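Q: Could you predict the 3D structure of (2Fe-2S) ferredoxin domain-containing protein?
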Amino acid sequence: MATTPTLTVCRDCCCGTTRKHPGVDHAAQLARFREAAPVRVSDCLDACAYSNVVVVSPSKAGRAAGARPVWLFGVLDADTEDELTAWIDAGGPGIADPPGMLDLRIFTPARRIRSAVT
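A: Sure. Here are the predicted structure tokens for (2Fe-2S) ferredoxin domain-containing protein:
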């Protein structure tokens, strides 16, 4: 049973662009996430008000424990990246609680948007 969650990272609309977030090295962020977990890149997750959005989909073990994808907003700084990669290392949704302040970045998107990622 796979133990690594999958990340879906929003890019190319407003998330992940230097136009909206000029102080963020988006390529380095993707590289860092890819070291921690499989990463899918989406052109737009239709949650632009929450930019920079990352969705953490649970591993098979996490799903078996009842976890659903977790949507995070404002993933824009090294501290948040540290907490996200630490959570992935610990097993992610359904296996471990989000560390530090990461749980304050969780949001629930509209049902129509959620269905595109789950």
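Q: Anything worth pointing out?
A: The CA atoms of residues 9 and 84 lie 12 Å apart.
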